[in-house]
Amino acid sequence: MTPASSAQAPFQNKLLPLLLLLPQLLITVVFFYWPSVQAVQQSLYIEDPFGLNSEFAGLANFTELFRNSSYVDAFLRSLFFSAAVSGLSLGLSLLFAVCADRVVRGATGYKTLLLLPYAIAPALAGVTWMFVVHPSIGILGRALVAMGVEWNYLLNGNQAMALVIFAAAWKQISYNFIFFLAGLQSIPHSLMEAAAIDGAGPGKRFRDIVFPLLSPTAFFLLVVNIVYAFFETFGVIHAVTSGGPAKATEILVYKVYSDGVVGLDIGGSAAQSVILMLIVIVLTVVQFRFVERKVHY
Amino acid sequence: MRSFIAALSLGCAVSVSAFAAPVEIQWWHAMTGANNDRVNQLVDGFNASQSDYKVVATFKSNDYTELMNQTIAAYRAGNAPHITQVFEVGTATMMAAKGAVKPVYELMAEAGEKFDPNVYLPAIKAYYSTAQGKMLSMPFNSSTPIFYYNKDAFAKAGLDPEKAPKTWPEVIDAAKKVRASGHACGLTTAWVTWTQMETFSAWHNISFGTKANGFGGFDTEFKFNNPTIVKHFETLNEMQKDGSFKYGGRTTQPEGLFLSGECAMIMTSSGFLGNAIKNAKFNFATGMLPYYPDVAGAPQNSIIGGATLWVMGGKKAQEYKGVAKFFTYLSQLDVQIVNHQQTGYLPVTIAAYQETKRSGFYDRNPGRETPILQLQNKTPTENSFGVRFGNLPKIRDLIMDEVEAAFAGKISVKQAMDNAVAKGNEELRRFERTVAKN
Amino acid sequence: MVENRPLATFFAHLVLILGAVIVTFPILFTLLASTYEGSDVASGRVTLWPGTMGLENYWLALTSGARYTAQNPAAHMLLNSAIMAVTIAVGKIFISLLSAFAVVYFRFPGRMLCFWVIFLTLMLPVEVRILPTYKVISDLGMLDSYAGLTVPLIASATATLLFRQFFMTVPPELAEAAKIDGAGPLKFFWDILMPLSVTNIAALFVILFIYGWNQYLWPLLITTSGGMDTVVIGMKKMIGGDDTQTDWGVVMATTILAMLPPIVIIVVMQRWFVKGLVEQEK
User: Where is the signal peptide, in residue numbers (chain B) (predicted)?
Assistant: First the structure.
């Protein structure tokens, strides 16, 4: 990839562009590269909480992680969690977008309502859903219990997982909906009409025309949703389940926090940070190639 | 950059020292509501009583774990407060941080302030002292788990509302009767590890870990996978099936189940009393923790929770003098009495307790004496001083992970306790390794 | 749609109504709960009919905060959130405009290096390197300050990428013409490029404002004195800690107050926001 197409760049200064870049470079180096280097460094040491003494441990923190089933579990759990959040959120928003594309009356009203979750902080999204489904406080939770359902996400890991998946997916619906709707509305009308004249029904039209044209959007959204589910859902989990019950909702980003900030395991937490950084860099490269491809069409 | 600022402020300090500005003492705490008001009163009282020192109290977080981590992070960054409030399970971590903390006995001796650890309730003194009986931190707000029950629910179930069940068989029987009378849930418990494991072990005089529950050294190992605890949790697990016991969460969440009237009995901190008086829409009363009569030596004595004040290391001698003066101020009898009566925490000194009793306070406020009677029930044994393990906040989480798995029916109780012991021991070894050289 | 199918349209409406209910229900329920007394909320006595404590809860929340936890009036926390959100939004937009301009309109040694240094950070959320970053902030003495809250979050490449892509769609003739007229690069930037970017800037402002407003883990670690709490953190802190009770009515009122500004911004600036989001994906 290249920073810009060669047609641009008419100005010939040497110093000015560096000055223009300076603020961003400075912030990036101080708050991104420096901490990253520190994370790598800390991940090679075992240290007491107060930093009174530390001993070089080589890769012990990393081998410890993979020896320890709880990290591998958290890893697999994160994969499941992000797949579930992405799937649920993308599915629902595509459905809403297809419907919103269809209706004329009240479309603006629906759209505005569907945008609301975007405005709400993950932590607040978690708390509000918790309120609705809490077994002894929430209106839905109480109704479930009254109906004799064994509903107690404080103890039932699967229910807790379902709850955080739902709250996290709910929050992401707006974002996906906007993109899908924009994608649908950019499909040329003439194309659809031609297909309809050829006798293709709505289902066939969706399969043959809409789906292929939407797939770049869908792919882009998939990457965004995976990143969202991996990292930005910390607030939901922290506010609703704190990773419990019995670690059922502990995903990687939560584990970094709880091992480092609560467990005071500086080295282990830093090792997890390093692994997460590698994951993100891979995702960034994937996203970049994709973004670049989109730029040139 | 910081050194530059430090130099700058040093310059300022030199230039204004002619005016003898009071030396500032930073105090971080986690006290909220009425307790927060009390902290501010204490600080104002001390600052008004003299002009050499000025204590500045800062509320940092309502969560002890977070406060402790903030303190540690601040220490690493070189800007720790002089005084910080640490909950009892953080004791071992703080004790091991030689150099990062200043033991209180040392602080008081160096500053020439009078300090006698024997004025404190034995249970409190034991918890925060070295094996040689030297106090490491300043007792401040202590609590202990007690038993609360809903009198109305008891009456409805045909039980005597004036009589708290004393033993576990009685509690179980009451829970089943309450449940049979149409009540949603019989019993719940907050702070499961603190009330049903750590305190439960002390109350039954059984060992929670080797080396006198960690008081005797860092090379301690957990022993809570013993038959008594396993049987106890199997009983609770069994009770879940008919709703006579309900698990409501790891920390304070179950208190909501009691307050809403859903569960008729709860075991939780004595500090919950004020909240219950204010918000319960039913009649309730308190009692001592239940025990299993077939366990030899039960009931022994309960152990404390709550927090103490730790002094951080690396400060100036003059500042330490101020901290010592402040602690002397806190130790005054009338201050102690107000602390106890106004906040709902225990009296930490024997004198404050006796004075409060003499004044008839406990007759006017039934339930306020229960926790003290329970703590003072017998002379502490090595199983009932308390628990002192490194990384205990994290270990509590590990234990709860396993307990929740057992309550959810994924593994057996025995398996859960064995796993928790194994994982807890790993954590203890990691702690031992990091503090070995301190 | 192509053909008129009343049944399909009816179903579409049905799905959308259902969607709207799912999307708004927790918000509505929180709104309802905020009009009840705390103990009623805790005992699950909230119904679909508003309670009578609404005014009192909101008044308490705004002026003094929850009764049993730290006395932190929401009004002050809202101000902190606003400062944080606006600083992050303006800061990001400002540095991104400059660096995108430099990357697109100049050839200079080290250009590729600068480009990659910036874009490697594209998707790396602060959560991933939270503890080391915390240490950096504390080494710089920026804990508990607005600078510590905002500056590190300004270091992100998303806005730069967006402006870069936008600048690349600007016809190169414009810059050539400006050069022929003897305008320097900064004059060109200010007189021609900026007016063209207004839409993008407004759209980004909405997105970044919400991003800043809704931050959670970062302020949770960086600010520890009560006076610095943002409203999202303040709300979480009101939910009982150790030995304290939760004043649920006030918590719910605070939650609603915390949601309001971003919701208002989204609704009012809907067009910009949608455009801005979709622009990013070009």
Answer: 1-20
- The CA distance from C116 to the nearest CA of chain A, in Å, is 9
Nearest to B434 among A46, A152, A262 (CB): A46
Gap from A37 CA to chain B (nearest CA, Å): 18
Residues 6+ apart with CB under 8 A from B157: B174, B177, B178, B180, B181, B183, B264
Please tell us whether the domain made up of A68-293 is placed in CATH 3.90.650.10.
Answer: no
State the total domains in chain C. Answer: 1
Chain C interface, mutation test: which of A28, A134, A287, most C Cβ atoms within 10 Å? A28
Contacts of A273 in chain C (CB under 8 A): 128-132
Q: Report the SS3 class of residue B220.
A: coil
Residues of each domain in chain B carrying CATH 3.40.190.10 = 21-143+304-359, 145-302+388-437
The per-residue pLDDT for B20 is 66
Instruction: Spell out which residues of chain C touch residue B269, defining contact as CB-CB under 8 Å.
Output: 243
Q: In terms of DSSP H, where are the helices of A202-297? A: 202-205, 211-227, 234-240, 252-257, 266-295
CATH number, residue C197: 1.10.3720.10
**Under CATH, what is the fold of the domain B145-302+388-437?**
D-Maltodextrin-Binding Protein; domain 2 (3.40.190)
Cβ-defined contact of A114 to C161 (cutoff 8 Å): no
Which residues does residue B120 pair with via DSSP β-bridges, in sequence order? B349
Confidence at residue A1, expressed as pLDDT on a 0 to 100 scale: 42
Q: Provide the domain limits for residue C65.
A: 1-281
Q: Please name the residue of chain C whose CA is at the shortest distance from the CA of residue B71.
A: C224
Instruction: Classify domain B21-143+304-359 at the CATH superfamily level.
Output: Periplasmic binding protein-like II (3.40.190.10)
Where along chain A do its domains lie?
A: 68-293
Copy the structure tokens of residue B116. Answer: 């006698």
Amino acid (one-letter) located at B300? Q
Assess whether pLDDT exceeds 60 at residue B376: yes
Each residue's pLDDT tens digit, B15-41: 444 456 899 999 999 887 778 888 999
pLDDT digits (tens, 9 = 90+) for A106-122: 788 898 999 999 999 98
Instruction: Decide if A73 touches B, using CB distance below 8 A.
Output: no
Among candidate residues A208, A216, A107, the one with its CA nearest the CA of residue C278: A216
pLDDT at B315: 93
Cβ contact, residue pair A48, B96, below 8 Å = yes
Work out the pLDDT band at A277, boundaries 50, 70, 90: confident
Contact flag C141-B1 (C-beta cutoff 8 Å) = yes
Residue of chain B with shortest Cα separation from A159: B408
CB C100 within 8 A of CB C164: yes
